[in-house]
C-alpha cells in the first residue's frame, strides 16, 4: 500500500514513521510512505503558502493553489493515474468524522491513499471541495496540525496490511474486533514486587483460562468503556457475570 502525505512538515512524518514495525514494513516493500512538501508548490518568490482569511478573523489560511498543485503532482505519481483514476484523499482536521477501527479496515483495502495535513487556521474551502473525498479527525481535542493525526491513521491502517505484523492472527483477535477491551497479560517472573500471576494462568486448563480472560475483558470494558458493551455479544452466562460484577462493585 502506498501512502502519500501532503504536508508543510515532511520530516516530521518521515522521521515518525521510519522506526519500528511500520519502518520495517517499508524496508520489506510492503508499503511506501512518501511525504511531499506543499511549500514546493508555492507560486510566489517568497515560497509563502498562507494568507489572511476574507471576512477577517484570527490567524492565516493555507491557500488553494499550492495545495492543488501539490495534489496534481502526487496524483501523477500514483499507479491509478494511468487509468485516469484518482486515489481517495483524506483531509485531517477536527471537523472530520472521528477515526475508528472500522474506518482503518476500510482504508486498508485501498492501494493508494493521500493524506492532506492542514496548518494555521485551515485551508481555503474551494480546494477542499475539489479534491477531498474523506474528512477525518482523530478525536475531540485540537492539535496544531494534521501531521500527528496522519501518522496515527497510517499506523492503524498499515498494521492491517497483510505481512506487516509477524503474526497474522494478532490483528484479528484484538480489542474492538469483538467490542471488548483486551484482558490483562503476565510474563515471567511468577512473583514481581510481591504480586503473583493469577494462579489460573498457571493451571494449564485452557477452557478455564479462556473463560477467565473473557471475564477480565468484560470487567475492563464495563469499567473503562461502558459504551462499547452495547455492541458486545455476551452469552447469557457472561451477562449474568456482568450483572453480578456490577452489583458487587456497587456494594464496595
Ligand atoms: Cl485530524 N487535526 C487537528 N489539527 N487536530 C485534531 C485532529 C486533526 N484530530 C483531532 N484533533
From TrEMBL:
Entries under SUPFAM superfamilies matching the protein: alpha/beta knot
Q: Where is the tRNA methyltransferase TRMD/TRM10-type domain?
A: 1-231
- Positions of S-adenosyl-L-methionine binding: 118, 138-143
This enzyme's EC code(s)? 2.1.1.228
Q: Where mainly found?
A: cytoplasm
Catalysed reactions listed for this entry = guanosine(37) in tRNA + S-adenosyl-L-methionine = N(1)-methylguanosine(37) in tRNA + S-adenosyl-L-homocysteine + H(+)
One GO term in the molecular function aspect is: tRNA (guanine(37)-N1)-methyltransferase activity
Where is the protein found, in the record's own terms?
Answer: Cytoplasm
Q: What CDD domains does this protein's entry cite?
A: TrmD-like
State the UniProt keywords alphabetically. Cytoplasm, Methyltransferase, S-adenosyl-L-methionine, Transferase, tRNA processing
Record text on subunit structure and interactions: Homodimer.
Q: Which NCBIfam families match?
A: PRK00026.1, trmD
Reported function: Specifically methylates guanosine-37 in various tRNAs.
Protein name (record)? tRNA (guanine-N(1)-)-methyltransferase
Which species does this protein come from? Drancourtella massiliensis
Q: Which gene encodes it?
A: trmD
